[in-house]
Amino acid sequence: MADEYLLEMKDIVKTFPGVKALDGAGIKVRAGEVVALCGENGAGKSTLMKCLYGSYHADSGEIYFKGEKVNFKNPDEAKAAGVILIFQELSLITDLTVAENMFLGSQPKKGRSIDWKKMNADADKVLQDLNSTVKSTDYVRDLPISQQQMVEIARGIALGAKILILDEPTSSLTEREKNALFDIIRKLKKQGVGIIYISHKMDEIFDICDEAVVLRDGKLTGQFRIKDIVLDDLIQAMIGRHMDNYFTKCTAEPGREVLRVEELTAHGYFRDITFSVREKEVVGFYGLVGAGRSEIMEAIFGVRHLDAGKIFIDGKEVKISSSVEAVKHGIGFVTENRKEQGLLLPKSCRENISLAKLPQIKKGLFVDDSKTNEIYDKYHDAMQISSPSSEQPIVYLSGGNQQKVVIGKWLAMDPKILILDEPTRGIDIGAKSEIHNMIAHLAEQGLAVIVISSEMPEIMGVSNRIYTMAQGRITGELGETEISEENLMRNIVITDSTQKA
């Protein structure tokens, strides 16, 4: 192994019954370097990291760490050596303090007892070094997700991380929190920590990473210096083709006005919101996280109280005080968090795609299974849902296929208006393209579509018009010829004249 690498995994093969998950995969990481690990869902990224971490054992291949050949038997052995994996699903014990979580299993002792004073002081030092406002004595249950993630990173540093693996680290962070995380990553780089960064967000990869390693179908398809490539190079390595038509925009002539809202206000969230959406049109909402975009849509859908304002559907004023009433008026809402708000994870694909229509397909106290099968068959084919059967528990589907089921659930209600909040969050690059095509197709079929996205390329790529927001107010409306990065950024920057909701 070349001495320049802190970590080198070479020719890793891992086979499960009937599936070759890794076939000659690998990754190289230098000290003080951030390497993106890219690939679609199922490409082998998690399997490769678990082979490093000792959760899995490779069938063949070699792993070198700090110049020596290693084969960690279990995660505890990997952590002791300085290889720390922070999963997307956090593993903290919420009823313990921050310090107790950081030093769990390795608490400093005074005699036979835990040295609480030293443990808290050591924890506070690490947290302060990371510029965190969290205290060692805070209980994890009282912290927001973003700060819990900082605690996970602090725990890795406290354990002496030499290689830090971050799996989708910004999935629950606001833009400000993401920037704070990137500051921490840059600080860790200066300290010589090697970082493996797993993310579907291409802009983050180009922003924070030095190199990118790409896997496809378990094979290594490229390792690039970020400064030497463009987005299309990375996409081609990930999916095996160029994506000239990565974004698809509805090209139909907009029809009649379907939705109009006037002066909507919910104190503390948004104020004086007025906009409209026509059939055969995709209208985007763009702004920083916390601008009030999701809250507006929740109010229109009847799950958030309005203090003032009017809602018109097909030119008639309507009162919507619940989601049931919203559905009756032809509104479907694909929420930001599909796992908690859009799906019943232990249930089958068939049961999930029929959820919104259950009141209409009951036979007395029981659900008409023939009707649920009809719904599943229709949208399984129309939306190209990849599932081995209708009875497959949805928890085992990829993020992209889960999202297709959620969208299919609302299409089964034959809506006039479809609201999509962060429709491609946590979805791989190929599935994102499929969702973008679907959005354009639904609009061309006559739906009025609203898309909320925090990803600038996405909101620009799918929208016919865009409303920009900041601090609970609409700050601008961009027609198709006015949509540009410069105009979007100008409109979401907070100015002295921007009043909070």
Note down, in words, how this protein is organized.
This protein is of the alpha/beta class and 501 residues long. Helix 4 (116-129) packs across helix 5 (145-158).
What brief labels describe this structure?
single chain, 501 residues, alpha/beta, Rossmann fold, 2 domains, 6-stranded mixed beta sheet, 17 helices, 24 strands, globular
Radius of gyration using CA atoms only: 24 Å
CATH topology of the largest domain: Rossmann fold
Spans of at least 5 consecutive residues whose pLDDT stays below 50 are 495-499
How many distinct beta strands?
24
Largest sheet: 6 strands, mixed
So how many helices? 17
Beta-strand proportion: 25-35%
Helix content class: 25-40%
Topology, pairings included?
Elements: E1 7-16, E2 19-29, E3 34-38, H1 45-53, E4 60-65, E5 68-69, H2 75-81, E6 83-86, H3 98-102, E7 109-110, E8 113-114, H4 116-129, H5 145-158, E9 163-167, H6 175-190, E10 194-198, H7 202-208, E11 211-216, E12 219-225, H8 231-239, E13 257-266, E14 270-278, E15 281-286, H9 293-300, E16 308-313, E17 316-318, H10 323-328, E18 331-334, H11 338-342, H12 349-353, E19 362-363, E20 366-367, H13 369-382, H14 399-411, E21 417-421, H15 429-444, E22 448-452, H16 456-462, E23 465-470, E24 473-478, H17 485-492
Parallel strand pairs: 3-10, 3-11, 6-9, 9-10, 15-22, 15-23, 18-21, 21-22
Antiparallel strand pairs: 1-2, 1-4, 4-5, 7-8, 11-12, 13-14, 13-16, 16-17, 19-20, 23-24
Helix pairs in contact: 4-5
